[in-house]
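Task: sequence design from structure.
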């Protein structure tokens, strides 16, 4: 553990195209999540970057402030571990790289926990988070996200299974050691690469997960 450089090579520069093994394309865009859809209250909403930041401070953006960050688009697929895939969406929003630039992590950071409403979370290797196509999305194919798809903000990590992309995301915690998120604690694979069919935690190999 604690050797992020050795893992950077595993993250593709751009998400691979096509259908990962065991997946199928379905018409439309189903809604998949655990629990209720949160109501968006702009005056209570803030986006927080905390944990092991370079300056030791917590960085917060109100919804108005977050809306002024540069808008960029990436093309990426959504692969649900239940075998549904949606290919070739254009996601618009703020790249993780932008957030990392505004709130840099401390040198020892190896992983991040992305936090959403109601305590949903997903852990990512820092190398997954810094990938150029990892994006906090407000839009898909030019349209604002609907509430059930994560409005006002969701994370998209096109090279991993979609549970790694929290809807209703509220912040990022920089971590100096790995820790399992919501589904990773409930039997899903710690890394979640769909091209390797890393679906369940029993498939994990040494180095894929936090030390017990
Ligand atoms: N907050 C939150 N985000 C979540 C989930 C969830 O349960 N809660 N489910 C994930 C899973 S398993 C999938 S497949 C995608 C589904 O996104 P969609 O409903 O927009 O298709 O959201 C992901 N993000
Ligand atoms: Mo999923």
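Answer:
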């Amino acid at each position: 553990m604690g050797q992020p450089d050795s893992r950077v090579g595993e993250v593709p520069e751009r998400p691979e195209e096509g259908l990962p093994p065991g997946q199928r394309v379905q018409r439309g865009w189903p809604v998949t999540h655990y629990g209720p859809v949160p109501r968006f209250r702009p005056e209570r909403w803030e986006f927080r970057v905390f944990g092991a930041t370079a300056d030791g401070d917590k960085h917060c953006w109100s919804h108005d402030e977050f809306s002024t960050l540069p808008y960029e688009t990436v093309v990426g697929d959504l692969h649900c571990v239940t075998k549904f895939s949606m290919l070739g969406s254009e996601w618009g929003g703020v790249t993780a790289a932008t957030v990392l630039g505004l709130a840099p992590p401390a040198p020892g950071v190896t992983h991040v926990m992305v936090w959403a409403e109601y305590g949903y979370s997903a852990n990512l290797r820092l190398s997954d988070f810094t990938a150029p196509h990892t994006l906090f999305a407000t839009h898909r194919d030019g349209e604002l996200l609907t509430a059930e798809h994560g409005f006002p903000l969701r994370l998209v990590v096109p090279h991993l299974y979609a549970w790694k992309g929290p809807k209703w995301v509220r912040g990022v915690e920089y971590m100096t050691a790995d820790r399992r998120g919501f589904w990773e604690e409930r039997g899903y694979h710690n890394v979640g690469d769909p091209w390797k069919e890393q679906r369940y935690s029993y498939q994990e190999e040494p180095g894929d997960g936090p030390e017990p």
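The longest helix spans residues 96-102.
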